[in-house]
Amino acid sequence: MADAQIATQAPRIIRREDYRAPDWQVPEIALDFDLDPAATRVRARLTVTRRGAHDRPLVLDGDGLTALRVLVDGAEAQGWSMDGSNLVVPLSGDAHVVETEVEIAPERNTQLEGLYASGGILCTQCEAEGFRRITFFPDRPDVLTRYRVKMTADKARFPVLLANGDPVAQGEIQGGRHWAEWHDPFPKPCYLFALVAGDLVANSGSFRTMSGRDVQLGIWVRQPDLAKTDHALAALKLSMAWDEKVYGREYDLDVFNIVAVDDFNFGAMENKGLNVFNSRYILADPDTATDYDYDAIAAVVAHEYFHNWSGNRITCRDWFQLSLKEGFTVFRDQGFSADQGSAAVKRIEDVRGLRASQFPEDAGPLAHPVRPDEYIEISNFYTATIYNKGAEVIRMMHTILGPTKFREATDLYFERFDGTAATCEDFVQCMEEAGGVDFDQFRRWYTQAGTPRVTANLAMDGDKARLTLSQTVPPTPGQPVKEPMVLPLKLKLFGAQTGRAMSDEQLVLLKDPHTEIFFENLTEKPVLSINRGFSAPVVVETDRTAADLAFLSAHDDDPFARYEAMQQLMLDTLVSSVTTGSTDHDAVVEAVRNTLTDAALDPAFVAEAVLLPSDSFIGDQLAVVDPEAIFRAREALRRALGTVLHDQWRTAYESSIANRFEYSPAAKGARRIRSVALGYIAASGAADAQELAFDQFSKADNMTDRQGGLTTLASGDSPLREQALEAFYARYRGNGLVLDKWFQTQALSSRDDTPEMVERLAGHRDFTLANPNRARALIGAFSVNQRAFHQPSGRGYRFMADQLIALDKLNPQTAAKLLPPLGRWKRFDATRAAQMRAELERIVATPGLSKDMFEQASKSLD
Ligand code: B3K
Ligand code: ZN
């Protein structure tokens, strides 16, 4: 671990308002790597030019580096010094060549930032500030540089040497070593630098761009994984074609390589021409990957590819602008995925994800605007707010402008800012100019944190109706008072008797705190369908009755709104069970029956629509979360649904049995409804449910069905449970990605003994904190298992804090990312809150805590 990462007393706060353009630019760099896992020599030759009239020295960021040599224009540099971990070089002229040499030890890099080793592969991760752990450099995204990279390594251990751009030369030298040189013609910030050295093989392909250039594609993995790369390669080609068709953007280099590694802090990284991926987002075959995995692989491959324009060709001026590339690129990958299968199901999944991760973030101690104003550690800001709320903000602009003007606006943005480091403001201005709109007030989406709440009440008066809309934005840390937002709300009225649409869908831009909208000449009582397609990322409260919601769940012509009405009906029922003890399940049961027996519906949609809201989403609706009561209420409703609709679940289960695995939207939908039906059959307590699950588990020819069976068994208490877990372990013990599922499935179990079981699993021989996927599979999954994590004894909190303290010593970034569930103490009763706070205090008091963890834990205590 590098000492420089350790927080001193008061870590420095970086503020957006302090932004200043760089003093020195670096138009060119030549890097020379003498690669060795234990000791890698890095020589850097920077051409630097003074920017503007000033006499400030060149300051090069470093983190844990010792300068072995510093040269200026070929001679030993005079008067250079260290300022903390940074190298300061006084320069007299306006242009110089500065050379440095350092030595680093990739195999000892457990933070997985900078140059590190993963399973015998040497690879890099530089975003956001990892390049400074490789060499001295102005490590900020507004310094754009052309890179020439030479790598020399042992040929037997590292036969493949890759870097950004195109390969330009290679050769052999004595002692079994070889070298390769790559050149990237596109100036880029250093966070997009990458190199990989390893014993790798490629699944190769090619893509002809719309202007007729052929691009060589390679998905690089270790030999045994080669057979699992076809899906990723196919997804890459689809993404390249989609970006041409939908955004008019074509790839710009002659090669595009992706490398998969097992140890990675997040999903993947969009380095120019050389994406590095967490292997879980590349490797797939039917035996080891679920449909969810297949979809996620395609989405992440697309996301990283799309960054080539939204992120790389146009990058961020500073890290406060992170959502400029991330929000926009998530919006783009969502569009891609929607076009590959069911757009409605994709929207449902995305909204569910937003509610599961972003809404709680916006309501908690770590809430921050889409464009934050300050941070201590930028790695903590790769959040659901920056990514997913950021994507919703782009989506709202798309909704307001309409597809044609939106495309004109993105064309303008790409043309105007290509090759530069831009800001969120630049993007919004392009939207305004091309769209002919005024986004003055809309900009608050970038500055105000918190999820807006809308109330909508529809009152009937003769043949007229009045819709009253109000909005508020709750206070968040540092922002006690909020201004009204611009909320694009799609709405429509349906006749309660006939089910007919009574109006066209209209887009209302709610800008004021209160607005009234009138409807005339109504021939029957209307039912309100609002925020259709989830047109604004807000919470909507209406005075709609259970009957209204049941009606919409059966008759709305927007599939998302149908889903939403059903969710609201379920949520209202569950909240009233928790708060009043009511056990009236009839409205939900009948609505689910209607959906389940509606032959016109896509089974994939049905499977989503009949799922109950999660424990934690139910908790989010309550003033104080009562995990036990929520769990009981949800289980009771599940049992009622399982029992009353027993025959329908059996029919759904049996009619969705496929004979052979196929990855198609229809086959995926069948598998999805099958596992959902199995869950309800088990919830009914049917005598044969566990056998049925075991049968599905044992006979499955694909991981989706196998894991579906295992998930049901893992929450049950039949002897088949242990048998299945053992069989699964024995079958996949050599496959890390599948073992992650084994850990995760147990951590998500609804059994009473899950906390003890998770503690035992943390001592399992296959558990390690050194691998981020494994840490997330056990600790991350456990922390979102609401009832288990919040068990009244507080042992879940203690366990979590112990694990986070241990992980922080190895990998601060991944540890800090896992902290938020422990920080939400304000949402719980006094006893739990005190226990959670005590663990947060223990974390903050840990000697040598990273600044990553310090920021997350100390902010959570406020
Ligand atoms: N840009 C990277 C994320 C980097 C995270 C650094 N802590 C992957 C992505 O969003 O595409
Ligand atoms: Zn991204």
Radius of gyration: 28 Å
Stretches where pLDDT falls below 50 for ≥5 residues? 1-8
- Level-2 CATH architecture of one domain: Sandwich
Can you tell me the overall shape?
globular
Query: How much helix is in the residues?
Result: 40-55%
Separation, N- and C-terminal Cα atoms: 29 Å
CATH class wording of one domain: Mainly Beta
Helices, by number, come to 28
Mean pLDDT score:
97
**How much of the residues is beta strand, in percent?**
15-25%
Ligands bound to this protein structure: (3S)-3,7-diaminoheptanoic acid, zinc ion
Which sheet architecture does the biggest sheet show?
Answer: 8 strands, mixed
Question: Which structural class fits the helix and strand makeup?
Answer: alpha+beta
State the fourth-level CATH superfamily of one domain: tricorn interacting facor f3 domain
**Which strand order do you get reading across the main beta sheet?**
6-5-9-3-2-12-15-14
The number of strands is 31
CATH topology of one domain: Immunoglobulin-like
Descriptive report:
The chain is of the alpha+beta class and 862 residues long. Among the domains are: 14-199, tricorn interacting facor f3 domain (Immunoglobulin-like, Sandwich), CATH 2.60.40; 314-447, Neutral Protease, domain 2 (Orthogonal Bundle); 733-862, Zincin-like fold, CATH 1.25.50.10. It is built from 28 helices and 31 strands. The protein has an 8-stranded mixed sheet with strand order 6-5-9-3-2-12-15-14, with no helix packed on it. The chain has a 5-stranded mixed sheet with strand order 17-18-19-21-20, with helices on one face. It is globular. 51% of the residues are buried.
